[in-house]
Design brief:
The chain has no helices and six strands. With 76 residues, the protein is mainly β. The protein has a domain of 49 residues. Strand 4 and strand 5 form a beta hairpin.
Length: 76
């Protein structure tokens, strides 16, 4: 079930539902993450390299238990 849309690179795209941190993506790529900290929800773009979550600088994130979602459809 698709629950949200976003404008990415100037186009509306459908996003998947949120996946729990114990599930990892099948594909390498950029994903939207949801981080709850101090009573606030934060949404960050993170990179999954096939094994680890990384930040925009390529540094491995300390917390690998990340709630995430991706594109519902890909043009690949």
């Amino acid at each position: 079930m698709v629950n949200d849309v976003r404008i990415i690179d100037g186009e509306w795209v459908q996003l998947t539902d949120w996946y729990p941190g114990d599930m990892k993506p099948v594909r390498v790529g950029t994903y939207e993450s949801r981080i709850f900290d101090g009573g606030w929800d934060y949404f960050w773009m993170v990179w999954f390299d096939g094994r680890h979550w990384r930040d925009k600088y390529g540094m491995t994130l300390i917390d690998q238990n990340i709630t995430w979602r991706g594109l519902a459809e890909s043009n690949e």
